[in-house]
């Protein structure tokens, strides 16, 4: 299996990206096609003692920056690591593409170069978020600030396939984020989406999920528009940081509390690992015809390695093909019912 | 000062409601007009040794239930504790009204009986939420699932008055919840609201606030639509519970960790108190002509007492009158500018 990576994308590129990919070669036995400035990649690997065996390096001179306007960057920077990598994926010269670069540009690039599945207007971002009992899939986590009901319904279908194929959940539970359990809650789009999802036999819809219940992780696929999804994802991150910071302060208070910390250190470490989003890899661009994965912009080697693992799982399990088939089947059922 | 309370509203009525109000009489020197089934109130006070000095009891035979359709309940249950209490407030037979009953019914009742301020289409819910550095005001916390830009702008004005008058913040910072710092982020309504707030001299607008930064509490007034506000409020609650539960498990692991807990107990208690929403009282129905406060449905005595304290602060500081004046001044400036 050949995973194409954007060696120049992200806050810690190329060093942490290359290190993560090198670790992935060893742990998962994948081959890596690293796209970026060849000289810089080789110099960085040499300087940091990163072993590039299993790597093919493809030169691309440009880099898409976080501040670039997404569509203009994809159209204008033809020789950027992201555009070159996505084109290789589209041409079948690799099985998946992983980047820690600009989310907007990756979305635009996946749409323009790799293309969308039939019936998908714009790809959505599916992100695995740590939860109390187990991690859950949040989608859309930020791609589409406004969503029509049929988009939310399609998210449910794609998200269910992902949780089944990649995360091994059987008949994953789907919930629609809403400000109450009743069917009539929410904006008109949410009320309509609820009715569509209720009638959709391709998913295991359990109804609305109230925000207070989301962090438990009992709902496998948490469906919402991208504005709300961004709030859920980023508020979870921010609040976890705030609370962990507060608890740290409790332990730093005096000698006695510092001693107490030593006694709970293993447990706290396990807890932090459980709540660490980096453990779950990146976000899949859902609705694109091939696996395109966005690693967190601040990814270090571990997070990037896990994003590659996720790409491998997607490829092995035929996740993207299954999504395409399921969406087509749902569209057919709807047409037949009309 | 006379605070009218709904003695029958909430999960723990009337006992905890009466206890909280009795504590408020002692601590804050307010008078209480308790509305509800007179016999039941007196029997409950007697049974639980609650001292009703400072109380006037006004009989109302009906109770609005959580499952009642809000507007129908307000129109139909004329002799309910909520309707009778709101009517007394409208007629000037009390300075503020506090209820732990149905939010929807209280919103409908405040609108129909106490009436809205000029220029306010529907009241919004302003809730003080615990934050890392300091608590912040979230509004709309759930009343209006869809909001036009001018509504968001009005929330900012009313929220600023509240934070200044009741919480003593000088030139409170106002942020618009959004999925990015740039002015162009969000739905069309948010893009427009950003421009309106930027031009609004009555507020100290600091731009968009990203969800990850909300829990720090550095932004005094966090403005959003009610759907998003409900997500922020309830996710914060749910996530705090999940994380605190996880940390509890760390401490319960074995004898050593249990001992460690004893060593950090005072600090953990202070932390829990800081993160406890009950400390901050209830939610003000913003845009209503007199102070109407919603205490949490699950309020126990402490939370209800704090909601009464909040009502007292609103009355003393002339918060509602200031909101009315500020909104009128903003409307005038807008008209002059057109």
Per-chain topology:
2 copies of one chain form a homodimer.
Chain A: E1 2-6, H1 15-28, E2 31-36, H2 38-48, E3 55-59, H3 70-76, H4 81-90, E4 96-99, H5 103-114, E5 124-129, E6 136-139, H6 149-165, E7 173-177, H7 188-199, E8 204-209, E9 221-223, H8 226-252, H9 255-274, E10 283-286, E11 292-294, H10 301-317, H11 319-337
Parallel strand pairs in A: 1-2, 1-4, 2-3, 4-11, 6-9, 7-8, 7-9
Antiparallel strand pairs in A: 5-6, 5-10, 10-11
Describe the fold and architecture.
2 copies of one chain form a homodimer. The first copy, chain A, is of the alpha/beta class and 338 residues long. In chain A, 49% of the residues lie in helices and 15% in strands. Chain A has 11 helices and 11 strands. Chain A has an 11-stranded mixed sheet with strand order 3-2-1-4-11-10-5-6-9-7-8, with helices on both faces. In chain A, strand 7, helix 7 and strand 8 form a beta-alpha-beta unit.
């Amino acid at each position: 299996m050949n995973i194409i990576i954007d060696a120049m994308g992200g806050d810690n590129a190329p060093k942490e990206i290359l290190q993560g990919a090198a670790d992935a070669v060893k742990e998962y036995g994948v081959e890596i096609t690293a796209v970026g400035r060849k000289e810089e990649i080789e110099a960085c690997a040499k300087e940091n003692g990163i072993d590039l065996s299993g790597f093919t390096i493809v030169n691309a001179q440009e880099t898409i920056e976080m501040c670039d306007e997404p569509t203009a960057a994809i159209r204008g920077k033809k020789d950027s690591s992201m555009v070159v990598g996505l084109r290789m994926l589209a041409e079948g010269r690799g099985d998946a593409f992983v980047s820690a670069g600009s989310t907007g540009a990756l979305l635009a690039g996946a749409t323009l170069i790799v293309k969308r599945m039939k019936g998908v207007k714009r790809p959505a971002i599916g992100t695995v978020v740590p939860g109390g009992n187990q991690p859950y899939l949040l989608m859309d986590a930020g791609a589409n600030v406004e969503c029509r009901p049929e988009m939310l319904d399609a998210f449910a279908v794609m998200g269910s396939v992902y949780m089944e194929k990649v995360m091994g959940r059987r008949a994953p539970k789907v919930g629609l984020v809403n400000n109450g359990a009743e069917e009539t809650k929410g904006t008109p789009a949410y009320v309509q989406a609820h009715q569509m999802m209720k009638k959709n036999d391709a998913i295991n819809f359990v109804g609305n999920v109230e925000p207070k219940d989301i962090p438990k992780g009992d709902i496998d696929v948490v469906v919402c528009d991208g504005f709300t999804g961004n709030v859920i994802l980023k508020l979870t991150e921010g609040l976890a940081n705030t609370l962990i910071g507060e608890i740290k302060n409790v332990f730093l208070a005096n000698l006695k509390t510092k001693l107490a910390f030593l006694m709970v250190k293993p447990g706290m470490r396990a807890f932090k690992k459980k709540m660490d989003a980096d453990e779950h890899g990146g976000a899949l661009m859902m609705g694109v015809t091939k696996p395109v994965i966005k690693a967190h912009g601040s990814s270090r080697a571990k997070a990037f390695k896990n994003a590659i693992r996720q790409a491998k799982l997607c490829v092995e399990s035929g996740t993207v093909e299954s999504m395409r088939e399921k969406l087509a089947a749902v569209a057919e059922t709807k047409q037949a019912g009309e």
